[in-house]
Amino acid sequence: GNTGIDSPNVTAMVRAGWAMDLPTVFQERGRCARGVRKTGVVIFVGNIKSLLENLHLINELGVRSKGDGGNNGSSSADDDDSGSYERVRKICTTRMEREKKTAVKEKNMMQLEVLKFFCLNAGCLHAKAANYLSTGKFMPVYNFDLEPCQGMCSMCDGSWHQLHKPVVRKEVISWFQSFEFQEPIKSADNPHSLTNLLWNDKQRWKEKIFGCSDKAIKKYHIECLMLSLIAAEILIWRVVEGEVEWWRNRIAYQNGNE
Fold first, then answer.
1. Residue range 93-104: average pLDDT?
2. What are phi and psi for residue 24, nearest 5 degrees?
3. Residues near 66 by Cβ (< 8 Å), separated by ≥ 6?
């Protein structure tokens, strides 16, 4: 793969939009502050709109694979009197469909790992990154055996918590169960449809969920909440005919795993 640039004078990097997998996150992060005793700042910026863009790319990848499968190995069936060509074609088509579904599923899981890394309150980002790079496995729950970075990441310096306001969990569940949350929530026409569902509510759910006055709640607080709910798999996405739909994961919130 691409190893990127090795420039010692890069001390700041901004990544706009979610990466599609964690190796890309760490690869891009490694472009900054290269060299002995170098320090730098890396900022990752992501929202629901950029998540939707990635999900559509993943879905389009599957569509293209399906189309390629219909074109590969094409020949005249008239040359095959026994019908063996037709049987082989069906076997190949079935196998490519299976491989396509597996690839799309894997890409969705890799995208979800990125959200879990950044959007769940699960301890030091540097410690989680070090664990991933040493084991090759993502650990969504913080391992207290790992040494935190002592204020060098957004988790440890408290800035993450300024974006992700604490919520009253029972109120989040009540909101899910209310008539205001009607599924599916479609996003084709408006990428902010999920955030706006709570931002524009008329029943004062914002104040109940965040436990504070309406004036203290900004729209980015709601978007961060939605990203955290997606990362925790309390909200899940489904792609239907090229359109992303948001659904409640009833197993997660009914079992109290909020």
1. 83
2. -65, -40
3. 96, 97, 100
Do the Cβ atoms of 231 and 116 come closer than 8 Å? yes
Joined tokens for residue 237: 């996405």
**Contact criterion met (CB below 8 Å) for 229 and 119:** no
pTM higher than the cut 0.90: no
DSSP for 47-99 reads -HHHHHHHHHHHHHHHHHHHHHHHHTT---GGG-TTSHHHHHHHHHHHHHHHH
Report, in angstroms and rounded to the nearest whole number, the Rg of the chain calculated over CA atoms.
22
Cis omega (within 30 of 0) on the bond before 184? yes
Distance CA 165, CA 160 (A): 9
- The residues facing 186 across adjacent strands are 245
Contacts of 81 by beta carbon, 8 Å cutoff, 6+ apart: none
Look over the chain and give the mean of its residue pLDDT values, rounded to a whole number. Answer: 82
Q: What is the pLDDT of residue 191?
A: 82
Task: Please enumerate in sequence order all residues whose Cβ is within 8 A of that of 97, keeping only pairs 6 or more positions apart, or say none.
Answer: 66, 69
| Sheet hosting strand 235-240, strand order edge to edge | 185-186, 243-248, 235-240
Residues 28 and 6: their CA atoms lie apart, in Å, by: 11
pLDDT at 17 over 80: yes
Each residue of 160-199: pLDDT tens digit?
Answer: 999 999 999 999 989 988 877 777 888 866 888 889 989 9
User: pLDDT tens digits for 226-253?
Assistant: 999 999 999 999 888 778 899 988 765 5
How many Cα atoms within 13 Å fall on the side-chain side of residue 193? Answer: 17
Element (H, E) at 3: none
CA distance linking residue 85 with residue 180, whole number of Å: 54
Place of tokens 């931002």: 199
